[in-house]
Amino acid sequence: MSPRPRNTQIRREQIARAALEVIAERGFQELRVADVAARAGTSASAVHYHFASKDEILDAAVSQAEDAFYAEIEAAVRESEPAGHRLVRLLERGSLGPSEERSIVGWRVWLEIWTRALRDRHTARTRELFDRRWRWTLAAAIRDGQANGEFSPAADPEEVSLQLAALMDGLAILWVLGDTDVDGSRMTSLLVLTAEQSLDCELQQYLQTHSRRSQA
Hints:
The protein is mainly α. It folds into two domains: 1-54, Homeodomain-like (Arc Repressor Mutant, subunit A); 77-215, Orthogonal Bundle (Tetracycline Repressor, domain 2), CATH 1.10.357. It is built from ten helices and no strands. It has helices at residues 4-26, 33-40, 44-50, 54-76, 83-95, 100-117, 121-147, 157-176, 184-199, 209-215. Helix 2 (33-40) packs across helix 3 and helix 8 runs antiparallel to helix 9 (184-199). The termini are far apart.
């Protein structure tokens, strides 16, 4: 069997990863195929072979970032753990991620997506699907916590997940724009505090943010 399909997928992933880095640095409007090719260690013609347009490159880059994000979540969260622990891990991954540098890169790409979604229907739909997936992930952890008696049964999982997702987005915008009052740790603290208030629970014991930063 020919290895070409596998090689093609690997090359597409390399190009998408390179595009993410370039978009984070320069924005989608300034994205040049030549820059992506150079970052990926290939040629512009090879990029055009794998992707017919810049829009396709953006789609692939965003999909790869989303897949990596959820893979990291699955690696960090076990179903057997308390729902509160799982919820805090989700909030930490959304704000701090594996590192603050990688989180900043990811949020810069999301700023590009939001801006493009204002005028491009396809990007708007992609944004909606990814945001719904994130809110569903948060709501699932909340429902499990309610079933286990960890969270207040009076809370609406969908409403709380929307509140947490919107707060995270807003804080991330301030962080990426360089607001001195917001960084990854401050985002996590505010998100966890909001979750505690909304779900009538204690979550501080599950925080890893401070220990991780102290070891950096």
